[in-house]
Design goal:
By secondary structure, this protein is α+β, with helices and mostly antiparallel strands. Helix content is about 60%, strand content about 10%. It is built from 7 helices and 3 strands; from the N terminus they run ααβααββααα. It has a 3-stranded antiparallel beta sheet. A hairpin with a 2-residue loop joins strand 2 and strand 3. Helix 2 packs across helix 4 and helix 3 packs across helix 4. The longest helix is centred in the first third of the chain and has 13 residues. The termini are close together.
């Protein structure tokens, strides 16, 4: 991951509705939720939530898949791991374990950017 991709991902998360949606979708795992369900659970108008979910998808943090008339969103776990690895890769003289991370918990996926 390069600086620009990290800035894009972190910028997408730097808004209260998007952060709440991301955290909700993290709880749901790989199945995710339809955008309307995310909007309802977070009490955000559906059109506004669609905008926020699209922003997170464009930043590479979510995966969208169409199911009939609905779009299901789920967290791109590999992208999240890549972002976390990027953030802590230089931690404490290149020893992430000092920060409480083990190399296995933040290791970059094989297809990381």
């Amino acid at each position: 991951m390069d600086d620009q991709n990290a800035v894009s991902a972190l910028g997408a998360l730097a808004q209260d509705n998007r952060l709440a949606a991301f955290r909700l979708l993290m709880q749901q795992g790989p199945n995710g939720l339809p955008s309307g369900d995310v909007a309802m659970r977070l009490n955000v108008p559906p059109t506004r939530m669609s905008f926020h979910l699209t922003t997170l998808e464009r930043a590479g943090l979510l995966i969208a898949r169409r199911d009939g008339r609905h779009i299901h969103y789920s967290v791109d776990i590999d992208a999240m791991r890549t972002l976390l690895a990027f953030l802590v890769e230089d931690c404490c003289g290149n020893d992430p374990s000092v920060c409480g991370f083990s190399p296995s918990t933040i290791s970059r996926p094989k297809n990381a950017v």
